[in-house]
Write a structure and sequence with these properties.
elongated; 4-stranded antiparallel β-sheet; alpha+beta; 24% helix; single chain
């Protein structure tokens, strides 16, 4: 292969590499938190985060509180690749709720306009 073709190939690979690095992915979850009597829970802590090798990655997370209707909307930016996610909901006096899923599952739920409905049980 001529030297000029090798140089062009390396330049194309470098551009592709930097394009991939510059791309961001992202995930979003929306929903409501209720108690066992179907009443909205206000000020519950909703932590949405990326999980790598079973452990949360502090740099990729969103922490929100539910509003008076128990509603939450969390999102954060992460790598553009398939990412494992964790949603944790807690409030004093209630058992903590936790669910794990993939970024593609979260995306599918958004596309279908589905929201999470989380029920916290009292301790």
């Amino acid at each position: 292969m001529p030297k000029e073709n090798i140089i062009n190939l390396l330049i194309c690979l470098a551009i592709l590499f930097f394009f991939i690095l510059a791309c961001d992915g992202g995930s979003r979850v929306r929903g409501f938190v209720y108690d066992s009597e179907n009443k909205p829970i206000q000020n519950a802590i909703v932590k949405f985060e990326s999980v790598r090798k079973g452990e949360p990655e502090e740099s990729y997370q969103s922490i929100e509180q539910t509003d008076k209707n128990g509603r939450f909307d969390c999102r954060f930016t992460h790598s553009p690749f398939e990412t494992q996610l964790k949603l944790t909901v807690s409030k004093v006096g209630y058992k903590t709720y936790e669910i794990r899923f993939s970024s593609s599952e979260a995306q599918k739920k958004l596309e279908n306009k589905e929201e999470y409905r989380i029920v916290l049980e009292k301790e």
